[in-house]
From TrEMBL:
It comes from Jiangella ureilytica. SUPFAM superfamilies: DinB/YfiT-like putative metalloenzymes. It holds the Pfam family MST. This is DinB family protein.
Length: 179
């Protein structure tokens, strides 16, 4: 039984094995982002802080992209799916961030939630096909392929870093704070 805190975040297992611990922390950070963005309209999801162009809506869309990129494109060497497959990344390398302003909160949450669900299915397939040591099918330019363990740890880092941004943004929108 997973404990869930007052914000709907599942607590990582305190005595889990390596896979359960990694997945537990990743799900905790995913739920933290959802909590920070929940209940906001388009204006609030497009608010910025100081000189930064980062928005909560941009975070949702960027992390949807990162989920798909690592758990589909890198892990299984699949082509990019919609909407990422039609982007001219050479023209706008930050399209995921910039284009979020054109999306409704419902579209942003749906895009992100669907990416997370695909990622969970892809992680389960990778675990069944070699576990945490399974290398990605796509290699880095130097020929090395990171392991599923590396990808999961990187995704925890990605969410943790951006959840710090989400803390500042949400507080600036309506004063809401919390870890």
């Amino acid at each position: 039984m997973t404990d869930v805190d007052e914000h709907g975040r599942p607590e990582p297992p305190p005595n889990g094995d390596e896979l359960a611990t990694l997945l537990g922390f990743l799900d905790f950070h995913r739920a933290t982002l959802a909590w920070k963005c929940r209940g906001l309209g388009s204006t609030d999801l497009n608010a910025t802080v100081g000189a930064s162009a980062i928005t909560l809506g941009g975070l949702l869309k960027h992390l949807a992209y990162v989920e798909d990129d690592w758990f589909s494109r890198w892990l299984f060497d699949r082509e990019r799916s919609a909407p990422w497959d039609t982007v001219d990344w050479a023209v706008d390398n930050d399209w995921d961030w910039h284009s979020a302003a054109d999306d409704t909160p419902e579209q942003l949450f749906a895009l992100w939630e669907q990416a997370v669900e695909r990622s969970r299915a892809n992680v389960a397939a990778a675990v069944a096909d070699g576990g945490l040591d399974r290398p990605t099918d796509r290699a880095w330019p130097d020929g090395r392929s990171p392991s599923l363990r590396w990808v999961l740890t990187h995704m925890i880092e990605e969410y943790a870093r951006h959840n710090g941004h989400a803390d500042l943004l949400r507080e600036s929108v309506d004063g809401s704070t919390g870890e």
